[in-house]
């Protein structure tokens, strides 16, 4: 089963268009439609709200303002507990802190009635000054959250509302100043990485109804049902056990659904009306009123000796977490924690990070989670440092990168597995680096160049990521496996079933896998690339425990020691005499229905290590010297994610992540107006890669074997987004010497940089030759 | 949310005009892809589907494109594909996707005078005319220069001519609006250079076209092309928006137009 | 016969009639998720007034299962359906493309399918599947 590219277990339902998503499950429940009135201002106080006209619209069931809802602090972040997230939200309050912030809740029988009601709610705002530039948020006299209003953080990592600071973070080893002063070459740079919108195809949505015991029951498009339940309970002032959250099929998330966006709003409507309610965000709302990748600034100084040995790494990170803190502190921490291990061999490291509030769309978890941003910055600097040393960039990486066996320094997990060196060698060959580096002239106006980057990430969250799994023998001898894992379309349900099938020595068809229900076993949820690693380990633990129970029971019936038995596809048999066996169907019937012995095992796995996967990415670009346009001719990614459980699914994950990074690198650009409103609020204005934009993405795997991983596996999901942006920037650097430290690398930006270096063609030539 | 109360599909142009004139809250429904994104609350939506305006036909070498033809029809029509080297049909594939183009209508696209239109530069370069129900026939260039007026666009006419044209665009990504686009048409008697997505609506660079006609044969092709497009970038106005700055557009006008014009001139000269 | 509002769009009508494979992915006609076939032509159901389809034949994926079975088999073998949310619109467009284009080039395929956005897969797996379905070889990369 391991290493098999089996189709996803839900594939048939998905390709035949079955109604298995949240809005489909709501379709026949005659649910109230919930819509939100949102603030048009970046920062304002609500003096008054008049809903009287809106309430008269036929079909309106209720309209709720801050005067009608519980006043309980919560965070919407789907993190573990205690969260390093400020509890800085109320369901509704008389202050709004970004354009899009919730002002009122409308529930109506139809979309038209709800839309009409929204138009008729009269709000009197007192507009307040707003903090719109994160580089002057700290110590700004305008405060996003007042310091004496009860904002708190269960795991406080430096919350300081009086200065618009959410957290401060520091990582260090060695003596930085001495390492820098003894470096022969020192390079510095400042980088800006913009927000990025997730653009998952299924927008955020949630459906709620009261069950037969009066519990609020949600079918919701979420990444973490248990955290969603906790945040919703907090927001509504309800005990956890009055809420059940289930996740159906989800149409993509990429981190964007790791927040409890819709649930409290449909929940309060169901509480007030007793009726089912659903909230389906429009694409505009998903862009403007959920979250986007954290915008960051990095100031980096690197030092090396003349022979290219990295000696000093200094990184300062400023993280814009927007109007509400959510994942901000964790993202700052991870921008260090999932990037620095690559450079642990250096003599000295100093990372300082500050997370600040602004009156802008909150930053939220997005694939890469800070490490995508920090890897871009540092991998560009690595190339510049290699250049300063006169050393080939690949040679520089090979010399300095983390290697298998490394331990200590800033590593919290020893590197017990790494095939990074093989990844780099293979990628180098696949792209034809030796023939192509650094640049070729295709024509008078076109250059072709190559660049590369190396990256790492984590697998799960150390000492925090936890998953429980139950496995039960059914009456017919098949298995029921239950877990809290959240398959977002990635295929994790399938992968976990493959892992179970391997241990249980059977085809996946004998296992029914049920996941993501708070009435089932706990799982931390689908983030931090933890599902295969953490839940996979829990599956193995549960399956082994199940086998022990099975062999103990069967051993008694067969009068032989349990350790002489083996589990085959449909039976338990003696290892040395397969003619002595009991069929699983017989055992199942016997133990489920009688014999005081239902065979079920539940085990929990807490991830005590977060082993590093590795990747090397290589970009080959074509550069148009007349327009500045970069075309990505080819991209090669070679991945070390330990053992590849399902190669087809792993390849698709890698390709998908690479393409998201290409968009981030070249043209995805959120734009805000002067008043802080996001104007890229549709697919018309915010452009994700299309089929005509991306070709020739080649992915390969260099397996290693992670001793702590399920069958040797490590994570994959986020790692794959780290290398394209820096590899493309590095290719541009090799082609032209241009150091573009700000994404996206649009044609106009590149063109201006070409002009500044006198490298652009044509218009200058004409100007120089004169006219008339 | 866009909405309207009544849907009408009149049988004659006169009926359609009468409905349009009846109220400012009545509107012609084109593809409605764009209308749907608005917050307009109309009274009657007027569908022209029964007026026989959904075909493309040829008469004495001239092409007539009915206003209700979809962009997809225009893109795939054999007559239009063969017209002047595919000048009009060629650029249409850039617009979003086949399923969008199967909804968007040519007449509505032209009537709305979208700055980002990938169709208007080509039509201008063809020397197209439009026929409106009230205002009658006029050159497309005149229509685009007039202030907005209520009327029904019935047909687009492309004159009989046998030159070659090209369209081209610059885009930050393939699925995006153009940050600049244009089209060039050349025959023995005419040279029309049109630039669009400036971000303003497409316009003809008349001085540039004239320059080519006057200096053809007396200047080397390279120099002719370069000087002509420089004139174009000087005579037209450009602007800044999210996709590009005014300066960048002006400089790229040189590049884009030259990339179209130079090969056409070269072909003519036999290079 | 279905009762509709004059300003009702086809995607709403179809979902209300139980064709839940028809999905809404955006507000601006850009994503292609809502694609259905009207008289065999792929169109955006979010931007087509239901009134305009009177007298025409509309097909959703629910009604095309058999014709789609070969292509979807290849798709699932690649794992390229991923979250599946864009799948119905994409599958219908591919089926229409095969009927319309017969033997297209790689470039013609990309252009035909360009209006079907996907955020999960990066298009590579989908293109491998389409090539196999259309009988095209995998392209060389220099």
**Subunit organisation of the chains:** heterotrimer
User: Low-confidence stretches of chain B at least 5 residues in length (pLDDT < 50)?
Assistant: none
Mean pLDDT of chain A: 96
CATH superfamily label of the largest domain in chain A: Aldehyde oxidase/xanthine dehydrogenase, a/b hammerhead
Keywords:
heterotrimer, A: alpha+beta, Aldehyde Oxidoreductase, domain 3, Aldehyde Oxidoreductase, domain 4, 27% helix, globular, B: 271 residues, alpha+beta, Uridine Diphospho-n-acetylenolpyruvylglucosamine Reductase, domain 2, 5-stranded antiparallel beta sheet, 11 helices
Question: What would your notes on this structure say?
Answer:
The complex is a heterotrimer of chains A (772), B (271) and C (142). Chain A is α+β, with helices and mostly antiparallel strands and 772 residues long. Chain A folds into 3 domains: 11-128 and 198-288, Aldehyde oxidase/xanthine dehydrogenase, a/b hammerhead (Aldehyde Oxidoreductase, domain 3, Alpha-Beta Complex), CATH 3.90.1170.50; 414-458 and 610-772, Aldehyde Oxidoreductase, domain 4; 466-606, Aldehyde Oxidoreductase, domain 4 (2-Layer Sandwich), CATH 3.30.365.10. Chain A is 27% helix and 24% strand. Chain B has a domain at 3-48: Uridine Diphospho-n-acetylenolpyruvylglucosamine Reductase, domain 2, CATH 3.30.43. Helices cover 36% and strands 23% of the residues of chain B. Chain B has a 5-stranded antiparallel sheet with strand order 4-5-8-6-7. The longest helix of chain B is centred in the C-terminal third of the chain and has 24 residues, at 246-269. Chain C contains 5 helices and 3 strands. Chain C starts with 9 loop residues before the first helix and ends in an 8-residue tail after the last helix. Chain C has 142 residues and is mainly alpha-helical. Chains in contact: A-B, A-C, B-C. The A-B interface holds A 111-112, 115, 626-627, 629, 663, 666-667, 669, 671, 679-680, 684-685, 687-693, 746-748, 751-752, 762-763, 766, 771 and B 1, 3, 170, 172-177, 179, 226-227, 230, 242, 244-245, 248, 251-252, 254-255, 258.
């Amino acid at each position: 089963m391991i290493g098999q590219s089996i189709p996803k277990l839900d594939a048939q339902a998905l390709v035949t268009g079955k109604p298995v998503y949240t809005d489909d499950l709501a379709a026949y429940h005659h649910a109230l439609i919930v819509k939100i009135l949102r603030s048009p201002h970046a920062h304002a106080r609500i003096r008054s709200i008049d809903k009287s006209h809106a309430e008269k619209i036929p079909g309106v069931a209720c309209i709720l303002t801050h005067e009608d809802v519980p006043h309980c602090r919560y965070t919407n972040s789907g993190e573990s507990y205690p969260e390093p997230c400020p509890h800085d939200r109320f369901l509704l309050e008389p202050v709004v802190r970004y354009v899009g912030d919730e002002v009122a809740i409308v529930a109506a029988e139809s979309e038209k009635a709800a839309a009409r009601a929204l138009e008729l709610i009269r709000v009197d705002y007192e507009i307040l000054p707003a903090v719109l530039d994160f580089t002057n948020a700290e110590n700004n006299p305008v405060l996003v959250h007042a310091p004496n209003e009860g904002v708190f953080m269960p795991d406080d990592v430096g919350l300081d509302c009086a200065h618009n600071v959410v957290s401060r973070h520091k990582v260090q080893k060695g003596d930085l100043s001495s390492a820098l002063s003894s470096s022969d070459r020192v390079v510095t740079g400042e980088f800006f990485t913009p927000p990025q919108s997730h653009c998952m195809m299924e927008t955020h949505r949630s459906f709620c109804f009261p069950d037969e015991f009066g519990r609020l029951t949600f079918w919701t498009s979420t990444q973490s049902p248990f955290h969603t339940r906790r945040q919703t309970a907090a927001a509504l002032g309800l005990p956890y056990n009055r809420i059940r959250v289930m996740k159906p099929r989800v149409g993509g998330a990429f981190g964007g659904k790791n927040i409890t966006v819709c649930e409290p709003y449909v929940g309060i409507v169901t509480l007030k009306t007793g009726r089912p309610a659903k909230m389906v965000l429009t694409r505009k709302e998903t862009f403007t009123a959920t979250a986007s990748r954290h915008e960051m600034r990095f100031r980096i100084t690197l030092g090396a000796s003349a022979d290219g040995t990295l000696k000093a790494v200094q990184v300062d990170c400023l993280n814009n977490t927007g109007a509400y803190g959510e994942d901000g502190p964790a993202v700052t921490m991870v921008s260090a924690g999932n990037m620095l291990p690559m450079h642990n061999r250096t003599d000295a490291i100093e990372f300082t990070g500050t997370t600040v509030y602004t009156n802008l769309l909150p930053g939220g978890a997005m694939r890469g989670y800070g490490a995508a941003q920090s890897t871009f910055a540092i991998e560009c600097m690595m190339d510049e440092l290699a250049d300063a040393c006169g050393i080939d960039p690949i040679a520089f990486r090979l010399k300095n990168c983390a290697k298998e066996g490394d331990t200590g320094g800033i590593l919290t997990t020893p590197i017990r597995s790494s095939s990074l060196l093989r990844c780099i060698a293979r990628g180098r060959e696949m792209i034809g680096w030796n023939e192509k580096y650094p640049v070729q002239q295709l024509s008078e106006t076109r250059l072709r160049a190559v660049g590369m980057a190396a990256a790492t990430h984590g697998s799960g969250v150390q000492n925090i990521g936890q998953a429980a799994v139950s496995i039960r023998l059914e009456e017919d001898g098949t298995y029921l496996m239950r877990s809290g894992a959240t398959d977002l379309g990635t295929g994790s349900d399938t992968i976990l079933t493959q892992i179970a099938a391997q241990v249980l020595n059977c085809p996946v068809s004998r296992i029914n896998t049920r996941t993501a229900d708070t009435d089932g076993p706990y799982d931390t949820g689908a983030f931090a690339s933890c599902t295969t690693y953490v839940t996979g380990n829990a599956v193995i633990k549960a399956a082994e425990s199940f086998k022990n129970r099975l062999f103990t029971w069967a051993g008694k019936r067969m009068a032989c020691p349990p350790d002489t038995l083996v589990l085959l596809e449909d039976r338990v048999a003696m290892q040395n005499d397969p003619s002595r066996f009991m069929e699983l169907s017989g055992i199942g019937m016997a133990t489920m229905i009688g014999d005081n012995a239902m065979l079920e095992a539940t085990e929990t796995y807490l991830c005590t290590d977060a082993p590093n996967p590795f990747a090397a990415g290589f970009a080959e670009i074509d550069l148009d010297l007349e327009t500045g346009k970069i075309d990505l001719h080819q991209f090669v990614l070679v991945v070390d994610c330990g053992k590849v459980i399902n190669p087809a699914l792993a390849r698709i994950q890698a390709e998908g992540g690479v393409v998201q990074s290409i968009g981030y690198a070249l043209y995805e650009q959120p734009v805000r107006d002067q008043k802080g409103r996001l104007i890229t609020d549709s697919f018309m204005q915010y452009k994700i890669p299309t089929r005509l934009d991306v070709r020739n993405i080649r992915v390969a795997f260099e397996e290693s074997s992670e001793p702590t991983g399920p069958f040797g596996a490590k994570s994959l999901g986020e790692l794959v987004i780290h290398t394209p942006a820096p590899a493309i920037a590095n290719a541009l650097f090799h082609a032209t010497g241009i150091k573009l430290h700000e994404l996206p690398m649009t044609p106009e930006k590149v063109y201006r940089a070409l002009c500044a270096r006198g490298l652009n063609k044509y218009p200058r030539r004409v100007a120089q030759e004169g006219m008339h | 949310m866009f909405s309207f109360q009544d849907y009408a599909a009149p049988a004659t142009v006169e009926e359609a005009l009468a409905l349009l004139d009846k109220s400012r809250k009545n509107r012609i429904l084109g593809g409605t892809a764009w209308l749907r994104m608005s917050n307009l609350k109309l009274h009657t939506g007027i569908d022209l589907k029964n007026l026989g305006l959904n075909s493309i036909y040829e008469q004495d070498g001239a092409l007539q494109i009915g206003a209700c033809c979809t962009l997809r029809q225009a893109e795939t029509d054999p007559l239009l594909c063969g017209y002047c080297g595919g000048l009009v049909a060629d650029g249409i594939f850039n617009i979003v996707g086949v399923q969008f183009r199967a909804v968007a209508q040519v007449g509505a696209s032209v009537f709305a005078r979208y700055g980002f239109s990938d169709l208007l530069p080509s039509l201008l370069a063809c020397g197209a005319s439009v026929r409106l129900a009230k205002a009658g026939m006029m050159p497309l260039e005149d229509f685009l220069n007039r202030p907005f007026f209520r009327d029904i666009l019935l047909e687009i006419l492309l004159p009989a001519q046998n030159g070659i044209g090209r369209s081209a665009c610059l885009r930050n990504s393939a699925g995006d609006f153009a940050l600049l686009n244009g089209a060039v048409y050349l025959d023995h008697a005419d040279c029309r250079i049109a630039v669009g997505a400036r971000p303003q609506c497409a316009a003809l660079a008349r001085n540039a076209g004239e320059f080519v006609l006057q200096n053809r044969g007396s200047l080397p092709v390279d120099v002719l092309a370069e000087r002509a497009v420089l004139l174009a970038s000087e005579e037209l106005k450009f602007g800044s928006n999210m996709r590009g700055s005014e300066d960048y557009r002006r400089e790229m006008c040189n590049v884009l137009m030259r990339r179209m014009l130079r090969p056409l001139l070269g072909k003519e000269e036999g290079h | 016969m279905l009762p509709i509002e004059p300003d009702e769009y086809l995607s709403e009508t179809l979902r209300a009639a139980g064709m839940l494979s028809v999905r809404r992915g955006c507000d601006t006609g850009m994503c292609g998720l809502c694609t259905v076939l009207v008289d065999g032509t792929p169109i955006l159901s979010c931007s087509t007034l239901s009134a305009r389809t009177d007298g025409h034949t509309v097909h959703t994926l629910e009604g095309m299962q058999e014709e789609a079975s070969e292509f979807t088999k290849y798709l699932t073998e690649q794992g390229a359906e991923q979250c599946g949310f864009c799948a119905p619109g994409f599958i219908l467009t591919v089926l229409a493309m095969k009927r319309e284009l017969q033997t297209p080039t790689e470039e013609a395929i990309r252009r035909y399918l360009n209006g079907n956005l996907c955020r999960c897969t990066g298009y590579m797996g989908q293109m491998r599947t389409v090539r196999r379905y259309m009988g095209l070889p995998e392209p060389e990369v220099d």
